């Protein structure tokens, strides 16, 4: 099977520089997309999902900072590595780019070999950065599977699945920034409960975009569940703007917390898939 090529989007209005970069990175084995305008770059990222963007700051329409800002504010493109390519050397310009989440900053004239290595390193960091959730910084994916796999071969554990119901409606109404704030706040409340009533070996992770999982001990499960449930139920209304906290049309679509617990006494489980199925109820 042919190896899947990584895709680089080059956003550069200088056609000579754009053509040179296009030809060079194609020879290096990358798939290359090109855009000469900022708006065009944003649209390409929303449709093609490149693995990395080389982004000039000076563009004919919106500048590179605005392109980066839009990419970082869109959940589909927020994790794409960005390397700013510019003739600006001012410290404040560099800081502005880094504040927007740029992964690197290369000034013109540049060494093409150095740029190649910076591209390679940014792509490598990106591929290794999928172990934690970008919003909550909690473990996810393979780290959860490893922890749950350990449970298959041991006794004396308890799992608590914490689900935020109707988070998608909240996101549609108030946007991704507000939705991310909810996730971070819930993560903090779970951490606080574990710090107060759990143990140093407890494991908290992002099970899915709207779910958290807590791996703890049977003796502490009930207290932790009560603490987390009480705090979330007392807090959920405060995530809404004051004017929306009592509107009846939101009935049935309000944020709600549901929890499902699972203990080792319900096993044994044949494999990870069976354990997850039992956890999800």
List the helices and strands and how they pair.
Blueprint: E1 7-11, H1 15-27, E2 31-35, H2 38-48, E3 52-56, H3 64-72, E4 82-86, H4 91-99, E5 104-107, H5 112-128, H6 142-152, E6 158-165, H7 167-197, E7 203-208, E8 211-216, H8 218-235, E9 256-263, H9 272-280
Parallel strand pairs: 1-2, 1-3, 3-4, 4-5
Antiparallel strand pairs: 6-8, 6-9, 7-8
Written description of the protein model:
- Helix 2 runs parallel beside helix 3 (64-72) and helix 7 packs across helix 8 (218-235).
- This protein has 9 helices and 9 strands.
- With 281 residues, it is α/β, with parallel strands linked by helices.
- It has 2 domains: 7-130, Response regulator (Rossmann fold), CATH 3.40.50; 142-280, Reverse transcriptase/Diguanylate cyclase domain (Alpha-Beta Plaits, 2-Layer Sandwich), CATH 3.30.70.
- The strands form 2 sheets. Strands 2-1-3-4-5 form a 5-stranded parallel beta sheet, sandwiched between helices. The chain has a 4-stranded antiparallel beta sheet with strand order 7-8-6-9, sandwiched between helices.
- The longest helix has 31 residues, at 167-197.
- 46% of the residues lie in helices and 19% in strands.
End-to-end CA span: 38 Å
Estimated structural class:
alpha/beta
Proportion in β-strands:
15-25%
Helix content: 40-55%
Shape: elongated
Supply Rg: 23 Å
- Mean residue pLDDT: 87
**Helix run count:** 9
CATH C-level of the largest domain: Alpha Beta
Count of spatially separate domains: 2
Which CATH architecture of the largest domain would you pick? 2-Layer Sandwich
Strand order of the largest sheet: 2-1-3-4-5
How would a crystallographer describe the biggest sheet?
Answer: 5 strands, parallel
